Queue: 4 jobs
Job 1
Amino acid sequence: MDLIVARLRSYRGLNLDRVFAMGYSNGSGLVQYLMGHRRHFRAGAMAASALSPNRLPRDEVRTASILQLHGTEDAVCPYEGGNSRVGHTFLHAEESGATWAQVMGCPRDAQETETSDRNRRFEWGPCREGHRVVHYGYVGAGHGLPRDQEGGMNELIVRFFEETP
């Protein structure tokens, strides 16, 4: 990743102060790792995966906004955390959000709401530099998250990135 960003610096017209990362499932695990161990990203969106207890973010990461999307009935990356059938261990999805909130300097307690689509939404903020951590628990959804809820998954992610300070 460091080499990619270094190469991008040679191009004109790129705002490398606003680099975002998005991943789904295994790609979400990569984004979790990159957000926790590299300083390139202003925000990250992680879908269908939570933090692993053996790969927690470092305390000196760049302050960023975090969006987590997770199905409450996910059999691949269990919402409740623990061992998965793919050989990884995960934190509870909501604990994953709280961990990011702590690292990003957010208030300890999240504002919890039920969305119009009846999903769980937790928001920690404001964090350092005006950032926030938001977690959506898609009630009843498995590993394949519904793309038509919360205004559309892609739209939700893009809107989150656009609102990032």
Job 2
Amino acid sequence: MDFISFDNNGVIDIKECISKIKPSTKAIIMTMASNVLGTFQPIKEIAKIAHQHNLLIIVDVSQAVGHCNINMEELEIDILCFSGHKGLATPRGIGAIVMNKKYEITPLISGGSGFLSFEKKQPESLPEHLEAGSLPIELIASLQAAIKENKEKNFIKEQQLTTYFIEEVNKINNVNVLYPNNKNRCPLVSLHLNNISSDEIMDRLFQEYKICSRGGIHCAPLLHQQLHTENCGLLRFSFSNNNTLDEVKIAIKALKQIMEDV
């Protein structure tokens, strides 16, 4: 397995991607938007490269779904996966893997099909082939409702809140926005606090202002190694249509007051 770095705009290095394709390579696996950087990646361009080399293109859209329209056919994605609890705001524990029909998937778990109970293997028919045991009906319903709601969503508000936040927090001493000039991003902003502990600031934001943010390494240690933020981490803010401009202003003011105090 090889890893590909990103450039000064938080975008995957396409030349490096091409250089790391070997005869043994089977697939290119990537995120549509990083949960740390927030920047959208050139999926269609990478997909074309993958297919030129007879490779699968597998894309995790967890951070992007719910914040933009995603068309697998247009982007030439072979396999797409996501969790629902991020941009779609479902309860935790539900997600999906969506595959091109020309590919088949082998069940991870067999048994308890509900109508072929004496069989050790799952039925060949879909969706029963992939439905072992009792299904989380409530979570499935929540995902269906979230996807339906997302089809009618206006993404402009989220982008406006994100742009305003970036412009204002960049004025605070010891606060640096990752890739502030890259507007092609989901409504997620990570801040480097000049080697001040992001976890400490996260705790103070919640304890003193009841503002939820996320500090630390964000389950992405290799990315933080490239950013050289292993010791202090980054402070991440995310926005949705449920947020208001007044809430964003309160968060900016709170962060400014805390940073003046440390």
Job 3
Amino acid sequence: MSPTPYTDLKPQFFRLQWLDEHVDGRVLRDPVLIEANEKGTDVARRAFLFRDVIDRFQAAITSLEKCERPVIAVSHSHCIGLAIDILSTVDIRYTVQDARFSIREAAIGLAADIGTLQRFPKVVGNDSLARELALTARDFSAEEAREIGFVSRVFPTLDAALEGAVATARRMASLSPVAVVGTKMALVHGRDHSVEEGLRFMQYMNAALLQSDDLTKAIGAAMSKSTPSFAKL
């Protein structure tokens, strides 16, 4: 992946909140690092440029987290460095049994700066293990990834994993979009706030969302054992 995916990734995930369309992922190349050389040898000026590049890179990856629709990631083969940054931002992670993961940055002379060190420990819930993986840059298998809670399911093949992801997406799509989006918002908010703050957040959010027609539609469908139909957001 090029150093500057923010030119495409962030806008696309923002658009997903409003458009019902398929967005193909693309790998872009951008000469921003060349611009650093144009700043000359002044360390401070080059540092400001690199800070801005990192900031935009972080914003691109964070766009997956800020996208109000749930994001499912399917990983396979080598998932190294930036792949961990991306996987750590999504809502649901599936993988294939051939996958090998690594927080590889320490092995190439830098500290991960796009979100792994902030999100991965909270995802796996094991501070000691998260530090071990980040500080040693060692590989860990798909099975270990499931054992530590980094992924929820391991599939034998990529096709099977993709089918599983589509099935999960369809299941979520059959539910009230108000409920699904509200649930993701609460989960993302709760990760970085106390229980008390999370409960207060829910008070204000559900004060509005409980007035949705989706609630009565879902209850009615459950009682009649029928399939509810919800308006799009």
Job 4
Amino acid sequence: MKLSELARQTALPKSSVHGLCQTLVHLKLLKLNGDGSFSMGPQSVRWANVFLAQSDIVEAFHEAVAEAVGLGAYTLTLSHLEGPEVIYLSCRNSSAPLGITFRIGMRVPAVFTATGKAMLAAMPPRELTQHLPSEWPGPVTPTSVSSLAALEKEMGEAVIKGYSLDNGQLREGMFCIGAAICDRPFHPVAGIALSMTAAEARPDIIEAMGKRVRALADNVTERMGWAAA
């Protein structure tokens, strides 16, 4: 985000925002990019990691994953929405050749991810608009969802099934299944995804693993003391 946009959103004088940003850059909480925009700096991720290590939902995710049987061959991730992006809170990467390694603090467009679609599908329309990109992101792969209409169709299917699909939209050769975690009806706070190779993603496997991911998300929900969907 650029300085002018930060000043507009905070309603602060541009000179004040500039001074604050310079301080945050010095502390490595922000990073000044080549185009003059700012993004999260490495220190902010380190601080976040310390907090998230103590976070109840991350702990609940770890406990649920540790007790899950038959999922050891798959990558499992926990993420949440921030604006139009998904941020990964915890990851258990497998040895499968997915072509990507998930990391805590990693950000990707929500509309291309299984957890992003699942969380968006669980929201009421008014809240949904706050998490849709102002400009549709460029495709990451040839199968990346290309329009709001196409996304709405995928979200409709996710509501019916209880889980969403990423059929290589984030990474070619990777297939992901996601389910939302809600602390109350229509209020998703996180999402869980299971990732496998596209070659493994046969219809019967997708259906079976979809039910497992939904159950895993419900397990975390119950551990948090919330009512499962």
